[in-house]
Structures are given as structure tokens and as C-alpha cells.
Amino acid sequence: MSGKLRLLATAAFGLEGVAASELKRLGFEAKGFHGGARFEGSYEDAFLANLWLRSADRVLIELGRFKAESFEALFEGVKALPLEDYLPRDAFLHLTASCARSQLMAPSSVQSIAKKAAVSRLQGVYQISWLPETGPRYRLDVHIHEDEAVVALDTSGSGLSRRGYRTFNAVAPLRESLAAAMVMTSPWRPWLPFFDPMCGSGTLPIEAALIALDRAPGLLRPFAMEEWAGGEQKAYQSLREEAAERFEAQKAERQAGPEPLRVAGSDIDAQVLNMALSHLRQAGLTGLVRFEKRELKDAQDLFGEGRGIVVTNPPYGERMGDEAQAEAIYQELRMLRNRLPGWGLSAISSHKGFERVFGLRADKKRRVYNGRIECEIFNYFPPRAPKAEPDAED
Length: 394
Fold this sequence. Notes:
Distance between the termini: 67 Å
Radius of gyration: 24 Å
CATH architecture of the largest domain: 3-Layer(aba) Sandwich
Largest sheet: 7 strands, mixed
CATH topology of the largest domain: Rossmann fold
Mean pLDDT: 92
Number of domains: 2
Number of strands: 14
CATH class of the largest domain: Alpha Beta
Helix content: 25-40%
Number of helices: 10
């Protein structure tokens, strides 16, 4: 189809602005909204967003929006959309639905009615008595909020948090998209040391390394739109090859240059560290991130003095009897920061008394959800580097 597509990068609560900022860095005019960020572009642009967005969940093509206060209005609204501009006659059609604060609050019924309407539209346009559904898979998402329905076509397939490197999970892991957002909103910058003293299966250090090495998060995985009919596949492949070349160039520069990558993680559990090493290998980062078995009280020895940032996902104390253990770890984190006076710290927790237990108010906070758990990211900035003393001759 001609013209620009209306595109949506969906994101978890609290990460909408992060996703919008990422889109702006990719060259798009983006605006955050509740649930993500809006932008415009071509199919190639949608693929570029899928390839490079770190904090988003999916990239959708908005097909239309309309009032849906009844199932009849929903059926007619979906049937009126120009679905044939996006879906071929043999499209394998899959519908998903969600509802919030609306008169229609049964996702399964919304899904069923919307699919009937979409099939009816395609049968009429293509003049066929039944939809064969033997072709590529197309996922239509119907979201109804305050009686307004938004119908969108999913270009991503599986969620963008599934980078392709993580096949094993430790207890309470962060989704890759949340981990990346936590790294990007922390005081850390790629030229500083990065350290996670409770790294588990390694998600935070690996996401930091991917950022530092300019590695597209979607480089190792496919996207649904790559299976669709059309002439864009060569453009998609070109974007993949360009991303791979950028990563290899940055990796070679870091390995040979004067500023090696200084990203590390530690944990007291040898089994989860083995998972971290497997994930590191599957991410193509073997030898670039350091993982060691250490207790929290000894963790500072990995880097020693200087400047850097600790970024970590400590226990929250969600289960009965765990709160005291979590609070003891928060106090250990404060002592770790005291032993690293030039370092900043970023930690995520659902514990309402985190700052009280840690003993210091955060310089900046961001409310997010880790799964269904409401959390805050607490950022403590490193002290400013002292200014150089003027020479006696000045």
C-alpha cells in the first residue's frame, strides 16, 4: 500500500517514554501514550523498529479505531476496515483481544466477533465463499479501552523481549525489555564499568553489553512480518546485515582498543552462573562479559576503586518470611556502595520501604511493573568527579 503506516510500539507501564526516546534516536517522530509510543513509517521502518527497540514489547500497524459500545458496533467497525490492504486472500488469521473500562469486557467474545467480521470483509473483497487460511500467519490485535476499539496488525510475532539468547531462567528473572530499560535509565554509560552483584542468569549484564557494543537486540530472532508476502524481504535482510556489521566492528574495536568492555556480574549460586555463561555464549558475547561466584560482601573486588555503576535486581520480599532477608540484602547493598565511593547504583524493588532500609533517598525513581508486580527503579547517582587542580603556572 502507498503512504505512511500508523505504527505503535507497545511498552509496559512506565516504559512508554523510554520507548519513545528510542524511536527518536532511530530517527522517527514519536510520541508516548498510555501503553507505548506512536510513530509513522513504512514496512521497512517497522522492521527497523523491531530490530533495534530494546524496551518495547511489540511493533503494531494501526488499522483503525472506532467506538465499540456493543458487539454489533464492533462487528461493523472491523468489517469497515480496509483489511485487504494488509492481508492476502490466503492469510492465516489469528485474533487476540483485551478490554479495559468498557461496556464490552469479555476478551474471548470480542476475539470471536472481530474474527467473524474480518473474515466477512475478506470474503466480500476477494469474492470467495470461505477463507482458506493456508498462507502466512497474520495476528490482529483488538484492544478496547473506554469503549474505543483499536485494531492493529502485529509485525513482531513473539514479544520483542525474546531476544533469542535466554533459554534458562533463574528465580524471578527480569524480562529482557525491562532489564534493558533499567540499564538505559540508570546512571551507567558504556564507557563506565557495569556491575550486577546478584546477576542470576545474567540478563542485566548481557543487556548492558549489547548496548555498549551497539548490538541490535533483535539480531538473532525472526519477526512475523518477514513471512508476509511482498517485496520487502531484501530490505529487511539488508538491515540485518548492516546491524551485524555494526556489532562486529564495535566488538573488534572494544577487544583491540584502549577502552575494553568492563561489564561483570557475580552471584553466590554456581548453577545460575552456569546459566549466565550459556546465555552469554548464545548472545555471541563469550569472553566479553565477566561472571564470577562471589558473595555480596566481597563483590567490590571485581573492579576495585574508580568510577562505575552497580545495576541489580535484588529480592523483593514478596513471599511470607522473605522480607527480613530482602531488607538484609538492601543493607548489604548500601555497604557495597560505601565500599565503592565513586560508584552509583540502580536497583529495582517492590518493597515500599526500600529507601528507608537502604538508608538513603534515591536521586531519581521510576515506577514500573515487573510482570504483575508494581515496582520502582531507584537510581543513586555517582558523586561528581573532582575538578582538576589548576597548575601552579596558570
